[in-house]
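Raw record, unedited: 20 kDa chaperonin, chloroplastic
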Amino acid sequence: MASVHLTGPRVAVAAKPVGGLRLPTPSIAVPTGRRRARGLVVRAATVVSPKYTSIKPLGDRVLVKVKTSEAKTDGGILLPVSVQTRPQGGEVVAVGEGRSFGINSIEISVPVGAQVVYSKYAGTELEFNDADHLILKEDDIIGILDSDDVKDLKPLNDRIVIKVAEAEQQTAGGLLLTQANKEKPSVGTVIAVGPGPLGEDGSRKPLSITPGSNVMYTKYAGSEFKGAEGDYIVLRASDVMALLS
């Protein structure tokens, strides 16, 4: 049975003797980059050559300069790269010409300079002008956030922002629950809604869900955030299963 040892840019495979013979030790080259691997998964950004001075997205794509990862905890503890939270926000630095619906054209609704939040695994990573960028579709942008608190997020398209209800502290029989045993809630209160999705004619269809509504949503949908006043989730209106009253 061979064993695998990670030794930097190469993976050495150590083979045990077979029938008294020791096999030569092969090695497998693993590409390296600025981003470290988690396990054997390597996320490498596409490096844009310095000879190119600008990037112009096409269609409904947007170029975002990614916010820098937090290198320390709130208490000042330095975090290794492997556990730093991957940013989900940044500044829009360029936009495409928009989308076409027959003879109608709809421009990108997100302006250059806007601070945006996007879906966690969306887009293509780029390294441009010594900074991390992401090129993604407009629909992958969750919303515009001009402050540091997610409760101020302005959702785009068919997305809604929900303040998650607090988990139950005890069972129906009065038994106190530990943090590990608390059921993750899938209900909350809508605090903001987007303008609605684009129809086939390019017009917006307003959402039927309104701020202030108490809703039940699909358990593993959306993107979760922690705010100053609690937990929030941003998801598509189609992920809401029911209204509660």
